[in-house]
Write a structure and sequence with these properties.
It contains four helices and 15 strands. The protein is α+β, with helices and mostly antiparallel strands and 184 residues long.
């Protein structure tokens, strides 16, 4: 995954906001609203905001989102499947002692979320803050095989794989969903 950090050009902002509003894609989202939906992030030259005039809550995006590459085949969201936009090769997965992934289910949803992390530091910071117990961390060697195997490991209607979840200053969980797959 290659990230492009703010400040962004006008063309990058236009590409990012077009991506966010294209129904084929899964957008970056922010804080959960009272109705259970998430706030759609808005790109500005300074970074992502949750509302007009609000503070920057994230200052990076995937390079393919900022350069219109997301419009090419294989980079758009298709029903129930993220088609290669973010590789899960090499991510870290916290597990229990039987190597079953640690999951969470945000309030108001029956979906199961599986958290993957790009670094051990991000993993430890988030799990320590949330007081989440885990027995071991495994590195995913082949992300595509992992995605195929996840429904066999977990019993859920919908499994969402998220990358680098973290707690905001308001102690809200924030994350980027990178994959959806159907469970049992």
């Amino acid at each position: 995954m290659i990230a492009v950090n703010a400040p962004w050009t006008d063309d990058q902002v236009a590409s990012l906001n077009a991506f966010q509003n294209d129904e084929r894609n899964h957008p970056f989202t922010g804080r959960r609203k009272t109705d259970g939906s998430n706030t759609l992030l808005i790109a500005t030259p300074s970074g992502w905001i949750e509302e007009k005039g609000g503070p920057v809550v994230q200052a990076w995006a995937h390079d393919w989102m900022a350069n219109w590459e997301w419009q090419t085949p294989g980079k758009v969201r298709t029903p129930g499947r993220w088609t290669g936009a973010t590789s899960l090769d090499g991510v870290l997965l916290p597990c229990d002692k039987e190597e079953v992934p640690i999951t969470f289910a945000p309030l108001g949803t029956q979906d199961i979320y599986v958290a993957c992390f790009s670094t051990i530091e991000k993993l430890m910071k988030t799990l320590d803050k949330g007081r989440v117990p885990f027995a071991k961390v495994i590195e995913i060697k082949n992300g595509k095989e992992f995605i195929k195997a996840i429904p066999l490991m977990l019993d859920s209607r919908l499994i969402k794989i998220v990358l680098d979840p973290y707690y905001t200053e308001e102690d809200q969980m924030s994350f980027i969903e990178v994959e959806r797959t159907s469970g049992n």
